[in-house]
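Forwarding the complex inputs:
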Amino acid sequence: MDDRFAFRIKFVLGFFLIGAIAVVVRLIDFQTDANTEKMRDQAKARLTYSADSEPPRGRILDRNGHVLAIDEKYFEIGLVIEDIDLDVPADRVAASELDQAIQELERLGFFDPNVQFRNVLAIDSNLDTPNGLRDYVLAIRTEIDIEKAADDYSPGFKLAYNIGNPIPAEFVDRLALAQKEQYAARNEAIANGVAPEFIPEVTLKHLRWTESNWVRTYPEGSDMAHIVGVVDSDGNGIYGVEQNYNGFLRGDTVSQTFEYARPEEITGELTKTEEGVDIVLTIDRDIQALAMRKIAEGVSYYGAESGNIMVLDPQTGELIANAIWPARDPLNLEDWTVRYFDPGVSKPFEPGSIFKPLTVAAAIDAGEFNLQSSYYDNGCGEYHGVQICNWLKTSWGPQTIDGVLRHSLNLGTTWLADGLGPTRFYGYLRAFRLDKATNIDLANENSGFLVRPSDAAWVPSQLAQNSFGQGISTTPIQILSALSAIANEGDLMQPRILHAMRSTTGEVVFGESTAARPISSETAAIVTDVLASAVEDEANQAQVPGYSIAGKTGTAQRVLYETQIIDGVERDIALGYDQVLNVTSFVGWGPVDDPQFIVLVKLDGPTRDEWGSSTAAPLFSDFVQDMVVLMELPPDQVRAELASE
Amino acid sequence: MTTMTRSRQRLNASPKRLAGVLREAPWRAETRKMALLGVLGVFAFMLAGMYVHAGAQADIEFRNEQNLLSQRETLFFEVKRLEADLASEYAYDRMLQRAYALGYVPQANDAIEYVIVPPVASAADIVPAEQPVEIVPTETLLEWAIRVGEDLFVAVGG
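Prediction (whole assembly, two chains):
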């Protein structure tokens, strides 16, 4: 009896021992096997899953904190075709179910009935990813051809029609509740033994929803689109601030690893996503909106093709407003392909007479001329074989520098440029940074076209033409920046649009910097005084009641271009001057004693009138009268009274 | 009577018989081993139970944590949505529409009257008048010492 019992015990223990040895041997085998690493990865993969987490982009704000761009989480709703068996008549319910769902969406205002939705087929083989994120492709429309969808369906793929994108979370919550209630009603009917024909259908069973990517929202719409830019489907910025500061705005995508429940290791580290940085611009939303409305009215009233109003703070280089017309629509994909998305920084034009203050400033600063220097104006003259004439070919007789600017005399600037000589004249243009882009922090900035004596294409007559802004091109921001040096006592401030960056860790405010000092403060004061008196006498339509303004009108011939693709790149080929339409402009700054703004108004091809003094100048006055109120800038007299107290 | 007879029988037993009587019964040894195994088994079950319980608790906490994280994420999305809604409400066009709806009429620039308001002293500029504390002695040091001594004497004597 004892022996038998002992034997049994030993027998059982023997089994355990053999099993334990087998386990140990197998464990050793696992450790020494060539595929150990692979097996370890497999084991880890079974216990964990990873999900890429895309943080929201940072916001874009104006200088007063108004939101110009922000991310919002939306959902997509899809109809999964794979669930539908078209051979089963009941499943054809899905088609009507879809219509019901869409009617509900339309009733709630999620679809714009005026928008023609596209009916695009969407095939995705990776709908059921472990993290539940489903990558539906765009396919929107109310009428889905479900038979065609079945034909297109191939095994191994799931087919989904996206019927709503983007859908707010609020609607998805309601849809989820409705679906749950349908299932509950059906289950209750079955439990109660209701006859099959009276069991309610779950009509929403084919609908699926998922979080979509962040959707960029632009509260100010087309007022800001060309400055702020847009974001493409991959979440990268296109144009403007979105492109230029994409790296800061986008933040870091974080791959998070989660571990399924295990007692000893509950979960992996949940790393917080690195949100994008908020960008605060120097733009004033209200002044920008005002400028957009004024340029729209101006383009319409003067029958122009397009126009710009650009406002810069000459003392800091901050871009306060940059209005264009026609405006860009951030929701219109066609607009994204526009070559000159923001003409203010990318589209060069021949500035014409608004260039003359630079020539005069150069002539005075070089010490070659002063206010008493004079010449005799014949109205027309020949310079290196080219006929140079004043506008309307008027002869003004003996003239000084004051007369050159007051009457906008082409022969006068020719006289000054000739006195300076090419080397000094073009040296000053370089000092005014007209030979390169301004380097403003906006994407796709271009530089104008400047031919200098060192270039083979240069001919001596260009000195005269360039002196009054012909045969040379600049972008609006280039000419505005150059002229701001005259307004700001000779200091040319680096134009910029970035005021500050904010993140969860703090704020960095960016200050102004001097880009160049092309002329002395004395020269700047002289030219400013002459331009201020010119506005009072000759360009009085630009006057702003109560405010001292210095400025210059411009009327330039418009260059016609043809866009050609050369070496795969779109290039503008000049065809010559437009014989009918001009580019009219006005640049002015004020208050003269303490300039707070410098404004460029430009109209491309106005048909109501051909002169800058009668188109751009009154538009400037109209705009600035409202702008000074928004800037809380009192009239000169009030400021003087305040200063005297 | 019966007890006495049995004792006698035991005393009369041979040593071999005695050894046989005193030897532990096999069933008792088996029972002890079984009991030991049983205790070990119960202990093992307790350990396993504790392990499973701890695992279940951890699992529940893991789920709770996941739920909280999910809630946090949902709230984050909600905050973002509200921020976007707020931005839309404060958009320039929207504000302008509301202003017009409330009867706003734009004024011409010449209707603006600037009024110069004399500078108001800020709180930082106001310096409180200094109130010198004047100390006027009412008794000499000797008088004070006498008074304190008297008080002490009265207190002790009383």
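The radius of gyration of chain A is 35 Å.
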